[in-house]
Amino acid sequence: MTDFQRAPTIFSWAIAEELAVAHMKSIGFSDARRSSAGPDGGIDVRSSNAVAQVKSRANPVGSSDVQRLRGSAHGIEHALFYSRSGYSIHALRFADESGVSLFRYDEMNRVVGVNEAGIRLCGNTWDSYFEAEAEAEAEAEAEAEAEAEAEAELFSEPIEDRTFSPITGNRVFSEEQLHRLGGFMVGKSVCGPFGFIEDPAQMRRDVLELKLLACVEANGELLLPGYQFGTCYAYLPHMREVLMNLDPQMNDGWGDALWLASNPSWLSKGRSIHEAMRLGVQVDVILTRASERYSNRLRQDGVVGA
């Protein structure tokens, strides 16, 4: 889509002329402008080396209109005609013989060349428009498919081996449950003192790039721990290092969410976080172990006071 195209519009002759001006500028007639009001020999748009006439009526343009344009353009290098409804056979024949460039436009503000001279100037035909639109749609579908495959690959690793698995994947959390989890946020909404995420699409990209830890709820929303973020959602320092050291034996390549601590009674019996979660701890997940280690590391760095 070129820069002179806009959303579908109810056409008037004035809008059609403005479209012709924009199109002429886009194909090299940089000084194109609408003619001043009043009789002007059928000329609607002028530039230093081209003139154009614009018709927005429902009937095809006849040869007499094209002949008048050719006469008015005597001594001018280019004569262009813009029609909303096409041209008669006689108009096409005369335009080819006299070198008038014919164009047709529609309600979508698409402008295409109709005869050889018009196509040579703008390079567009209806077929080329449809081909370009089909290519754009195919590219968009391919990008969406690639993104979906990337997400599927990221989240399709053995979910049973992820600490997150007992609390996600087959359920959707209520706001109350998320508040009980403490400092979690899901999708576009945030639980805790974080406000609202302004760009959820960027958040998903950051998850795919392993900048954020997250897991997917049954409805496809992302569940993220809120303490990964500082003010204005800046990612906090040393988060990856802390996560990697919480439970080295059960750590997978992604760093997994091994910062999740279950009820301390599970840990007091010597079970790992991973084992405790697999044995049924569902909603009552706390962040004690992770938050303590994280706070200690920040204190060592002098990021927060002792």
H/E topology pattern: HEEEHEHEEHHHEEHEEHHHH
DSSP helix fraction? 25-40%
Strand portion: 5-15%
Extended strand count: 10
How many distinct helices? Answer: 11
Determine the N-to-C terminus distance. 58 Å
* Overall pLDDT score: 67
**Stretches with pLDDT under 50, minimum 5 residues:** 154-168, 188-196, 250-273, 280-291
Largest sheet: 6 strands, mixed
Give the neighbour order of strands across the main sheet: 1-2-3-4-5-6
- State Rg: 33 Å
Task: Note down, in words, how this protein is organized.
- 39% of the residues lie in helices and 12% in strands.
- The chain has helices at 13-26, 63-72, 89-98, 116-122, 126-155, 175-181, 200-208, 239-246, 264-268, 273-278, 288-301; strands at 33-34, 45-47, 50-55, 78-83, 101-105, 111-113, 184-186, 189-190, 215-216, 222-225.
- Helix 2 (63-72) packs parallel to helix 3 and helix 8 (239-246) packs across helix 11.
- A hairpin with a 2-residue loop joins strand 2 and strand 3.
- It has eleven helices and ten strands.
- It folds into two domains: 13-124, Trna Endonuclease, Chain: A, domain 1 (3-Layer(aba) Sandwich); 159-301, no CATH class.
- It is an alpha+beta fold.
- The chain starts with 12 loop residues before the first helix and ends in a 5-residue tail after the last helix.
- The strands form two sheets. The protein has a six-stranded mixed sheet, sandwiched between helices. It has a four-stranded antiparallel sheet with strand order 8-7-10-9, with helices on one face.
